């Protein structure tokens, strides 16, 4: 099987799994009796654990093989779904979140590096990553339908069994089709880390990309709170359909980025501007929620938010992977994610402090998003001022 086809199918399978809980996750944690602050605590712990495991897993991917790293990521994430299904409170949720964090750390850097270095890849990286975004959107839509259906038949915990099943299928697929379909790597793990650090220190372009990655951590203010906000206007089943509508926009984003990739020179020269524009769209759409109290308008604004995020990932991944040498590409991806996650931890830490002073009430969420959008717009302005020319 061609590497690009395997990459898309694997992406589709893991997004079916993750989509099964996308519209249920925070609501399920609230069902377990957690407050908004405790939800934030669990997610901060999640990102701290990813930070802890990022570099070792990236180094293993470059030293031992990216295919095996991808398989390990799918296994741990599948186990996290089972653990969440069995969770009964804060500590059970923490264990499940920890397993998911390890899985994500194994994926980080390894998955994008695997396809970037695939010997049989014939199309541009921007085209590949745009197609990945389309596969993510399609998988999330199907996964959401599965998760909402299971929740309506039983309860929200059954969505996490679907997550476990989706990642179990992805594990089997990766074992069959993604092992060994990559160039041989003779570089050692610690040599890969030294090279990645030296490359980041010597490259202004990579330091700019790291700044962009850290700014995207502000997305965390949205990730955890869109369901508690929209559930005040819509039922759980309607929430699932709304999430599907919003994720159709991800498919549109992927199509748009793929269309741009036909102009390969222009795409490379303007990736910095396109990346910043996508971030600005995220900021504006998130901030405007504060101006209205209408559920339908909120859905429209959050759809534009998702379009911006859908464009952001392939732009930044293309920018980075076109510049980083193959030998330590996975380690560098993990290094950037490692440092970039501090942006997410800072953002969610700030939100945690806010909820020490205000009640865990959905009416505070639009105000929270307004502050986050102002911070993100400020970061975009700063990054625009110092952006590389190419």
UniProtKB/TrEMBL annotation:
Superkingdom: Bacteria
Membrane-spanning residues: 7-30, 36-55, 67-87, 93-116, 128-151, 157-177, 208-227, 239-257, 278-301, 335-355, 367-388
Molecular-function GO term, any one: transmembrane transporter activity
Keyword annotations of the record: Membrane, Transmembrane, Transmembrane helix
Pfam families, per database record: MFS_1 (PF07690)
Key word Endoplasmic reticulum present: no
Keyword Transit peptide among record annotations: no
Cited InterPro entries: MFS, MFS_DHA3_Transporter, MFS_trans_sf
Gene3D superfamilies linked to this entry: MFS general substrate transporter like domains
The protein, known as: Major facilitator superfamily
